[in-house]
Write a structure and sequence with these properties.
mainly beta, about 170 residues, six-stranded antiparallel β-sheet, about 10% helix, Jelly Rolls, single chain
Length: about 170
């Protein structure tokens, strides 16, 4: 049996499981150093990864304390949800993919500290994955990364106000 395109990409790009869901591989970590304007220590100025979600996977609600740029590379479009850190406004939804008349775009910036989650938009037309590149500046550090705990006030608010997005917790 032939491997799927997603399986080929996982192998070829040396992708590993990501804590938020899906697969990733860091492709760049800048030697240049940046000092964030908050109390975080200095770190690489820029980091980049490949990130792949198979049709049955999603990126769980999480936050990164630096700006993150998502860039669509191939596969089916991606539903990328974002919400302010305090969950004071309804999550916004963008379609990340090839440009179309319905507003799908190949790039989106998630500002530092916002909640974000994603899943492939799988339809009957086929496609079993989405491959994106993500760039974080100042560079990614796991100390700046947090998943939405299932027993947190944020998760309770998400389940209450936006139950259709609770499966992304």
């Amino acid at each position: 049996m032939m491997p799927t395109r997603a399986q080929q990409l996982i192998e070829t790009l040396r992708l590993q499981p990501h804590p938020e869901g899906g697969w990733y591989h860091e492709t760049f970590r800048s030697n240049a150093v940046s000092t964030p304007g908050d109390d975080r220590p200095s770190r690489s100025a820029l980091t980049t990864i490949y990130f792949l979600l198979e049709a049955h996977q999603h990126s769980r609600w999480h936050r990164v304390l630096s700006d993150e740029v998502w860039v669509f590379l191939e596969g089916v479009p991606l539903a990328l949800w974002t919400c302010d850190a305090g969950l004071r406004t309804a999550p916004a939804h963008i379609r990340l993919g090839a440009v179309d008349v319905h507003g799908t775009r190949p790039q989106h910036v998630v500002p530092a500290g916002q909640w974000q989650a994603a899943r492939p938009i799988v339809s009957h037309s086929g496609g079993d994955y989405t491959l994106v590149a993500c760039a974080v500046a100042p560079g990614f550090d796991y100390a700046d990364f947090s998943l939405m705990p299932g027993d947190s006030d944020a998760a309770t608010a998400m389940r209450h106000h936006w139950p259709e997005l609770a499966d992304l917790i």
